C-alpha cells in the first residue's frame, strides 16, 4: 500500500490539469487514512501478542478450565422491552437506546475475575455483550468519551465455548452465538479444542480480537437498568 501511495502522489504532482490533480490528491489522502488504520490494528495486535507471551511464560494464568468448573456468576438478564428503565447502579452510564448501564473498569483483571467483579459492582451485572452494530457503537462512544486512554484493550463477555464436538464463539450473557461480529483482520485465532480464548476490544479502533483468558486487561461492565416504578 505504501508503494501505491507514493505512485499516486508522484502522478498527482506531475499533472498539469488542476481537476485531475485534485482528484488524485483526494485518492492519496484516502489511501494514507486506510494505511494509518491498518497500522493501528497491527500495533494493537503486537501489544496483544506480547501479552500472550507473558501468559505463556508463566506470568499469568496459562491454563484455563471449562466454564462449568469455574463457579462463575449467573449471566446478565436484560430488562423487558414493555417497561421504562432508566436507573443504573452508582457510577454506570445509562444508554436509552439499549436500556443498558455501562461502566469502564481500569483495574487489570483476567476474564474470570473481571466477570465476577462486574457481577458484584453492577448488582448482578456482567461483562458487556454486543447483540448488534448499533449497540456496539453506543459503547464505543462511551469509551471515547470517558476512557483515560491507558487501556490497550477491554474484556467483553465473549468466549470460545468448547464441549465435546460443540465449539463456537458465544456470549456469556444468554449463551447465544455471535450473530453480529466485528473482528480485526486475521482474528479470531482460536485453536480447535482450546477452552482458553476470550474476546476483547482492541484500542484505538475498538475492533474485536481474542486473547488467552488469563491475560489481565481493562474491562467493560454492563448492568441491568431498573424501573422507577
TrEMBL record:
Q: Where is the signal peptide?
A: 1-16
The cross-references to Pfam families, in alphabetical order and at most eight, read: Lectin_C
Please list the coiled coil stretches. Answer: 25-52
Which CDD domains does this UniProt record tie to the protein? CLECT
Which residue ranges does the record assign to the C-type lectin domain?
Answer: 101-222
Q: Which SMART domains match?
A: CLECT (SM00034)
UniProt entry keywords in alphabetical sequence: Coiled coil, Signal
Q: Which InterPro entries match?
A: C-type_lectin-like, C-type_lectin-like/link_sf, C-type_lectin/snaclec_domain, CTDL_fold
State if S-adenosyl-L-methionine is listed as a keyword: no
Name this protein carries in UniProt: C-type lectin domain-containing protein
Amino acid at each position: 500500500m505504501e508503494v501505491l501511495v507514493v505512485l499516486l502522489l508522484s502522478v498527482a504532482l506531475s499533472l498539469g490539469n488542476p481537476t485531475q490533480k485534485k482528484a488524485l490528491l483526494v485518492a492519496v489522502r484516502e489511501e494514507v487514512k486506510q494505511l494509518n488504520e491498518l497500522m493501528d490494528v497491527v500495533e494493537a495486535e503486537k501489544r496483544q501478542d506480547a501479552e500472550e507471551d507473558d501468559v505463556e511464560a508463566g506470568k499469568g494464568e496459562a491454563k484455563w478450565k471449562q466454564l462449568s468448573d469455574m463457579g462463575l456468576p449467573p449471566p446478565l438478564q436484560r430488562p423487558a422491552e414493555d417497561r421504562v428503565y432508566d436507573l443504573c447502579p452508582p457510577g454506570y452510564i445509562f444508554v436509552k437506546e439499549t436500556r443498558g448501564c455501562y461502566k469502564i473498569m481500569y483495574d487489570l483483571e483476567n476474564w474470570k475475575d473481571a466477570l465476577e467483579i462486574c457481577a458484584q459492582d453492577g448488582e448482578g451485572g456482567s461483562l458487556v455483550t454486543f447483540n448488534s452494530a448499533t449497540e456496539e457503537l453506543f459503547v464505543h462512544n462511551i469509551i471515547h468519551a470517558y476512557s483515560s486512554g491507558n487501556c490497550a484493550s477491554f474484556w467483553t463477555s465473549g468466549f470460545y465455548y468448547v464441549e465435546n464436538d460443540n465449539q463456537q464463539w458465544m456470549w456469556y450473557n444468554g449463551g447465544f452465538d455471535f450473530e453480529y461480529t466485528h473482528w480485526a483482520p486475521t482474528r479470531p485465532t482460536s485453536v480447535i479444542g482450546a477452552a482458553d480464548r476470550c474476546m476483547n476490544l482492541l484500542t484505538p479502533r475498538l475492533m474485536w480480537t481474542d486473547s488467552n483468558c488469563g491475560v489481565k486487561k481493562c474491562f467493560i461492565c454492563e448492568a441491568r437498568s431498573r424501573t422507577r416504578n
